Amino acid sequence: WLPVRHGRRRLIKNFLTGIQRRVLRTATAMTDDDFEIISEGKANIRFPKGNKVFYNEAQVVNRDISIAVIKMFQERLHGEKENPRVKRRRLRQERFKTSSSTASSPSFTSSEIESEMKMDLPRRRSTSSEHEPLRILEGLSASGLRSIRYFLEIPGVQRLIVNDLDATAVESIRENIEFNGLPQAKVIPSHADVNELMLRSKDSFDVIDIDPYGSASLFLNPAVQSISNGGLLCITCTDMPVLCGKDPETCWARYGSMATRSPPFCHEMALRIVLGALDRHANIHKRYIVPLMSLSINFYIRMFVRVFTSPKETKKSCVKSGLVYQCLGCHSFALQRMGKSQASGKGNLKFKPGTGPPVPPNCTICGKTHQISGPVWLDNIQDPEFVKKVRDHVAENRSSYASSDRLHGMLTAASEELPDAPFFYSIPHLATTLHCTTPSYAQLRSAVIHAGYQVSQSHTSPKALKTNAPKEVIWDIMRCWVRDHPIKSPSESSPCHAILAQEPKLKADFSIIKGTDMSSKRTGIKKFVPNSEHWGPKSRAKSGGSSATKRERDSSSTSAE
Questions:
Q1: pTM attached to this predicted model
Q2: Considering only Cβ atoms within 10 Å of each terminal Cβ, which end of the chain, N or C, has fewer?
Q3: Domains of the chain: which residue ranges?
């Protein structure tokens, strides 16, 4: 068609650019009657009537929790600045930075954005006791609603880059920034590939928000490079079927981890898969992660993670990651950490490969075989103190958060989770395995406490039994329950028969301990609220604001607020 390849590319590029410009001119020609105003928090957003792609009512929980977390992170940053010991540590870590961390800022399509980024503004340290200044990037913004709320509701925002790859979305962002009267010197719309933007802006942002439609795997490596030392990453993943084991080979390709259908803790497994992948990406750059809060919400997971630079701490990541062995019969599980450490003098640690496997070929509980998943993150996924601060902040400012009731309950459940106890047992699942009546949560929790162990719920399930008790203790308690509540003779080939064939080594005490009833009737806190009217993801947005086809949804990643 054209003899020169370069000429063909230039013609195609000009053709596509012309289409984009015609779309933008059409959008500009629309009158005020063609728009509707949506208010959320302090923001007011203009949307074309009938275009529901860029706004999802269910995501108000996501935006509310993000604002609350960033505010509390801002307070923690200020407290660390006031602590001389923390300041000295930060300065030592900043001296370690390589010369590549001062790379020039990216070029944007707007000359205004380009000149702003070339200034490479450092974060100005607050000299007052008010608020720590923040540099924020929202990588996949769509309408700009989230960023506009960030600027209006989070004090002390020094610079906020509102980015999207779609030209129509960027034009909408620009209009909404003007509509809300935000200063253009601080709130800057950007039309760029977010990965390219982050890679050219290393160590430039205190907060990076990545909220894609689908997997966030493509953005993890650039994000851990672009975030400042001690900065906050806010990561969303909506590819829950993949993370919960529907397509294990896809999970391996995206996150470097094998996902299995692991009832009953598949949502916690999803969180730990992504955290493990994020930590491995950080380790490549001599950085490591510290999760502040990790939540499974509706149809997605949302993680708030700090990233620090330290070659010494990075070495400890092998102890925080491992494999999960889960029985295919009774679904008992065992953990195999990838590494182990021991003191080697002068306060140093020596690391060795982990030894295993932690289980024999057949399950000691029911005799069935195991399946292996991972590697996954096996360290804490919550910072209980931080989660409580966010919860208390939401409770004190209910009028600022439309989803405050749900947030308060969810954060209460997350703050009460037992640390250092990855995964959990499900009370209904235990009863189903043994074909018996289901004990109440208070009865089973009391029995575990009477046996000398700790136990809690999980924010992912109201019937979760998260505990540091060995699996042998849990099944001994269930054997005692069946003895008190007899069942019909099970099939000899069933896990139930093998489990009940063993005599319990302890006598379970099911007398209820005061405070073990965690129901909302007793506590007055609804930790597990039913899904809202608008629950579920919207269609994927594509160029021009319409919804994408299935083939397009499978082949690309964009944001859908």
A1: 0.84
A2: N
A3: 426-523
